[in-house]
């Protein structure tokens, strides 16, 4: 799938380029500004953590970066494609081929088995033998014995491992993770983040992670802080401290 | 205080989607069943009233060859608010001018007719007048034929026994004239008060006293109940349903209403079942939470029972609030259609099935899963599915079937109907379960999607649990709606065939053999060709296998056909609407044998080969029974108990001919010319009877269409409820698929295809099960014949596929309009 990167994008262009991004939501009487004038570049293979308190706008930013929503102002360029200007269907195509997701609440379909959940993006991409690839991935995340279990029959950590397997199924060039350990206890969270980092390294994926967990953020090469909708990058000293 | 708390808790529950679905299902269930039951009850009464003109009353008490009834009976009727009237019928010789003639006299009281009207002419060839009462004392109204037979003109006098009465009008039609060819003697109608003075009625005379009653139905029924224990063998208490002409049509209409109501009960139960089960399932987490908060098992049971009870009340009140105005609207529509006011009848009993349906299905479906949850440890409820669910699902399924069919039984109290419906539903579920299960399991082989079809089929497999249960409910809903559709179609077709647009509405009786051709020419010239002409020989059945017939069959049996002369005929071919049920019709050249009407044969206990002896004038004819045949008495065509082959037993006996033809209302004046030219031929005008029957059929058709419409609407609601049961999961899945890169168009196409396949398959199985149900019902309930209904079998699955795929598209709505990010958060 990596070969499917945009032919216009060479290895020197950043994976993500955000310019003058703002996002506002109309309320009944007022308008709520969630993001304000965000500029950002993320290089290929880089791992970036976006850290901030609840309500600081980090998940909204993630959604906009991934093309799940369109900004009120500004542009987002992902792997050479100007996604803020693409139609919904074009963005969907882009997500199918180049983007993976891991959510805080796992977002597994309760009626489907672990195997079927992982097969979902493969089927959407029209891949032949999606079950073989899904099996391999589930074995890789240590759930080879639990292929036919439904989410209800799995623990939180196991569910998140299924979600990680699903995220890597289509060999994305960029992975977006929204508080991937937010619903897990420390030890499980640690194991899940180990797995995420390891797979990320193995596949050379660009990782963009939203978290309020400083320890998890510290495992990324770069940390960005978001507060009241504004993004700032700490200096080297700040990020070490 | 407690009440306001309860209200508050209902308000809080209302905010939960699943609760709203349950309440909506309950209201629809109550509204549908109650409206249909109320309307059916109203319609039944309207039909009976409308048909009552055939009796000139709502009820008749006939006393044949007996004494008049005690006056106290009539007083009792008056005290119950009923109106009464009287008639005395007898045969006698009358003298007019210098000639005499045997006539059939009907002497009526002032009140006659209590229902319907009479048609007379006060001037020969003058306009036809409609009047609401019989002749006053001192006058007679006579049949036009009698006027000619006696050579009288209007205003002349007629001697009836010792009394001389003035002929003041020609009697053209009486409401209770019925359709009886045995009334061959011309009619004379006089006032009842003149009867005594005639001196005609002596001890031992053959006289029929007829008492007429009219009033509201409850009073009629209570009077009937009071009367029945006192009736003697010669008394007959008759309602219009006991008559031959209409009873079958009315019975079938009533059956249809019963079937419609039963199907409504079934559908309503399914709707409540689906919704409440879904609600119960959605409560797992809440129950777990309540348990972790320390609520005990019995406490949980009490909590939910109380909630269900409150919803039951809210649902019932809401449902009735819809049903009652809807019923008033339908009832007044009925009045408009009939062009006369309809006595509105609100039958409180009709509401009970609706209440029972709501309460029983609510508790039978919502409570068992909730009750089970209380036994499950809080952690297990939170973590994984309780084990042993399958065994209990079976138990729930059986309980559900018992509950639903118990309700249908309560409503209809017709074993045949319950068995036919239950059988078809079980068959449907088995076929859907087995075939659907195998087909869906076969989809397992499909891996990988990409195009909409593959994704749709993968989707069917992926949602196999939901797919199968949705298929079962869709299948059942379609089966119920299609059953009603099929029965309606065949009923209406039957009626249309029975009384086509230009059904013969006049009979000519007593045509002399040498006048046959002239009569035919007369009407042919006027553009009204005659139907088939049948010969008619009047004869009495006197012996069975050489023994006097009354002795042979037992003297205790009172069979009307043995007390009077029968119309015997010969015919070379079997009329279209007759069917041989035993034996064989005459082969060409056969001159021996007689074919007997099947019901009479059964009452007489006849066997093929029995020898029947008839007395015709001074002659006797003896022939073996060679076949039994059914006759459509309500076909409004000449029908005969006994048919001989041409050149057979009746050969050489004096015969007259009978025929029928269609005469449009605006050409009735042709009858004047006809009766002038052929004075000895009787004209029996049944155009009013036919018009009335057609009106009744129109009413029934309206009712049937209305009920069908309501059932279809209820079916649609059930299907929407079923789809909405998985709405949340589907929307979540849609949002996730979009997040994972599914294009909107792909999502729409694959979802519509997935639901379309599901709906199409459910449609095929449903319509076939409906055919099975109709097959079972048709013989037992509607006496029709069965045939495949391609006009329904083909379009129903297509419509079902389309409808269900649109429902699928509908539930996808927000998935397409909202950003997937927002939707995922909202549904979390």
UniProtKB/TrEMBL annotation, chain B:
Transmembrane segments: 21-40, 256-275, 308-330, 350-370, 393-412, 418-444, 465-487, 702-725, 746-768, 788-807
Pfam family, one: FtsX
InterPro entries (UniProt xref): ABC3_permease_C (IPR003838), MacB_PCD (IPR025857), Membrane_comp_ABC_pdt (IPR038766)
Subcellular location: Cell membrane
Signal peptide residue numbers: none
Coiled coil, from the record: none
UniProt keywords, alphabetically: Cell membrane, Membrane, Transmembrane, Transmembrane helix
UniProt entry tagged with the keyword Membrane: yes
Superkingdom of the organism of origin: Bacteria
Residue ranges constituting the MacB-like periplasmic core domain according to the UniProt record: 23-226
Keyword Plastid (UniProt): no
All residue ranges annotated as the ABC3 transporter permease C-terminal domain in the record: 262-376, 707-807
UniProt name for this protein: ABC transporter permease
Source organism of this protein record: Marinobacter koreensis
């Amino acid at each position: 799938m990596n070969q499917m990167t945009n032919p216009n994008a060479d290895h020197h262009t950043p994976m993500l380029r955000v310019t003058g991004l703002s996002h506002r939501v109309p309320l009944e009487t007022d308008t709520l500004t969630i993001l304000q004038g965000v500029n950002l570049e993320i290089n290929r293979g880089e791992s970036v953590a976006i850290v901030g308190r609840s309500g600081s706008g980090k998940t909204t930013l993630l959604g906009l970066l991934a093309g799940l929503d369109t900004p009120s102002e500004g542009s987002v360029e992902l792997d050479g494609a100007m996604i803020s200007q693409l139609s919904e269907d074009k963005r969907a195509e882009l997500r199918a081929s180049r983007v993976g997701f891991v959510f805080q609440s796992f977002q597994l379909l309760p009626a489907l088995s672990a195997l079927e959940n992982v097969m979902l993006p493969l089927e959407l991409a029209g891949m032949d033998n999606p079950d073989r690839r899904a099996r391999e991935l589930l074995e890789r995340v240590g759930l080879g014995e639990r292929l036919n279990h439904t989410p209800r029959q799995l623990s939180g950590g196991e569910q998140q491992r299924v979600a990680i397997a699903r995220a890597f199924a289509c060999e994305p060039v960029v992975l977006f993770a929204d508080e991937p350990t937010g619903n897990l206890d420390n030890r499980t969270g640690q194991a899940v983040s180990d797995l995420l980092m390891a797979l990320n390294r193995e596949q050379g994926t660009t990782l963009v992670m939203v978290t309020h967990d400083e320890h998890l953020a510290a495992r990324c090469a770069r940390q960005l802080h978001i507060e009241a909708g504004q993004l700032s990058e700490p200096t080297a000293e700040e990020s070490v401290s | 205080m407690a009440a306001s708390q309860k209200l508050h808790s209902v308000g809080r529950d209302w905010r939960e989607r699943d609760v709203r679905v349950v309440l909506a299902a309950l209201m629809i269930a109550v509204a549908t069943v109650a409206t249909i039951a109320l309307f059916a009850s109203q319609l039944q009464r309207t039909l009976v009233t409308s048909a009552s003109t055939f009796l000139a009353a709502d009820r008749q008490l006939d006393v044949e060859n007996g004494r008049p009834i005690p006056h106290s009976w009539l007083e009792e009727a008056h005290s119950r608010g009923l109106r009464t009237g009287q008639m005395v019928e007898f045969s006698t010789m009358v003298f007019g001018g210098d000639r005499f003639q045997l006539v059939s006299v009907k002497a009526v009281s002032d009140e006659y007719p209590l229902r319907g009207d009479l048609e007379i002419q006060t001037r020969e060839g003058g306009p036809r007048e409609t009047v609401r009462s019989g002749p006053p004392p001192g006058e007679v109204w006579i049949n036009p034929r009698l006027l000619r037979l006696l050579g009288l003109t209007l205003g002349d006098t007629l001697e009836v026994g010792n009394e001389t009465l003035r002929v003041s009008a020609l009697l053209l039609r009486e409401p209770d004239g019925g359709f009886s060819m045995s009334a061959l003697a011309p009619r004379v109608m006089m006032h009842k008060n003149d009867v005594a003075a005639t001196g005609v009625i002596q001890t031992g005379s053959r006289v029929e006293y007829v008492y007429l009653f009219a009033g509201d139905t409850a009073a009629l029924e209570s009077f009937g109940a009071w009367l029945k224990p006192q009736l003697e063998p010669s008394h007959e208490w008759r309602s219009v349903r006991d008559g031959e002409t209409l009873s079958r049509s009315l019975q079938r209409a009533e059956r249809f209403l019963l079937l419609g109501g039963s199907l409504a009960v079934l559908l309503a139960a399914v709707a409540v079942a689906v919704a409440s089960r879904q609600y119960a399932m959605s409560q797992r987490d809440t129950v777990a939470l309540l348990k972790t908060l320390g609520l005990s098992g019995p406490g949980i049971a009490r909590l939910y029972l109380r909630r269900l009870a409150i919803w039951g009340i809210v649902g019932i009140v809401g449902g009735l609030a819809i049903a009652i105005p809807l019923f008033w609207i339908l009832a007044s529509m009925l009045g408009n259609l009939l062009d006369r006011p309809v006595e509105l009848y609100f039958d409180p009993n009709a509401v009970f099935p609706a209440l029972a349906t709501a309460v029983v299905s609510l508790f039978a479906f919502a409570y068992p899963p909730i009750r089970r949850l209380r036994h499950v440890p809080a952690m297990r409820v939170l973590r994984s599915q309780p084990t042993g669910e399958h065994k209990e699902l079976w138990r729930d399924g059986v309980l559900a079937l018992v509950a639903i069919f118990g309700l249908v039984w309560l409503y209809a109290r017709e074993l045949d109907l319950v068995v036919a419906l239950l059988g078809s539903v079980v068959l449907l579920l088995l076929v859907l379960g087995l075939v659907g299960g195998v087909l869906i399991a076969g989809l397992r082989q499909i891996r990988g999607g990409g195009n909409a079809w593959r994704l749709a089929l993968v989707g069917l497999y992926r949602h196999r649990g939901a797919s199968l249960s949705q298929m079962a409910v869709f299948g059942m809903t379609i089966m119920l709606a299609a059953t009603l559709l099929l029965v309606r179609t065949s009923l209406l077709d039957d009626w249309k065939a029975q009384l086509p647009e230009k059904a013969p509405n006049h009979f000519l009786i007593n045509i002399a053999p040498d006048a046959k051709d002239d009569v035919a020419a007369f009407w042919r010239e006027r553009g009204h060709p005659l139907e088939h002409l049948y010969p008619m020989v009047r004869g009495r059945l006197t012996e069975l296998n050489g023994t006097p017939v009354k002795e042979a069959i037992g003297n205790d049996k009172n069979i009307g056909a043995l007390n009077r002369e029968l119309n015997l005929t010969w015919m070379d071919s079997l009329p279209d609407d007759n069917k041989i049920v035993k034996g064989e019709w005459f082969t060409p050249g056969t001159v021996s044998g007689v074919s007997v009407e099947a019901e009479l044969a059964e009452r007489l206990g006849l066997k093929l080969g029995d020898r029947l002896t008839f007395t015709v004038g001074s002659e006797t004819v003896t022939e073996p029974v060679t076949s039994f045949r059914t006759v459509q008495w309500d076909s409004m065509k000449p029908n005969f108990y006994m048919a001989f082959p041409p050149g057979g037993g009746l050969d050489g006996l004096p015969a007259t001919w009978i025929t029928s033809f269609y005469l449009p209302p605006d050409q009735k004046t042709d009858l004047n010319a006809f009766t002038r030219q052929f004075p000895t031929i009787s004209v029996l005008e049944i155009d009013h009877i036919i018009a009335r029957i057609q009106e009744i059929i129109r009413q029934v058709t309206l009712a049937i269409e209305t009920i069908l419409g309501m059932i279809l609407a209820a079916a649609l609601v059930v299907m929407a409820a079923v789809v909405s049961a998985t709405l949340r999961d589907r929307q979540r899945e849609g949002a996730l698929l979009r997040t994972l890169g599914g294009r909107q168009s792909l999502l729409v196409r694959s979802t519509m295809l997935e639901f379309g396949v599901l709906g199409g398959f459910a449609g095929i199985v449903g319509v076939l099960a409906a055919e099975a149900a109709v097959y079972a019902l048709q013989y037992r309930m509607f006496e029709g014949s069965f045939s495949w209904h391609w006009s329904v079998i083909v379009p129903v699955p297509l419509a079902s596929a389309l409808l269900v795929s649109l429902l699928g598209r509908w539930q996808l709505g927000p998935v397409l309009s909202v950003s997937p990010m927002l939707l995922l958060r909202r549904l979390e």
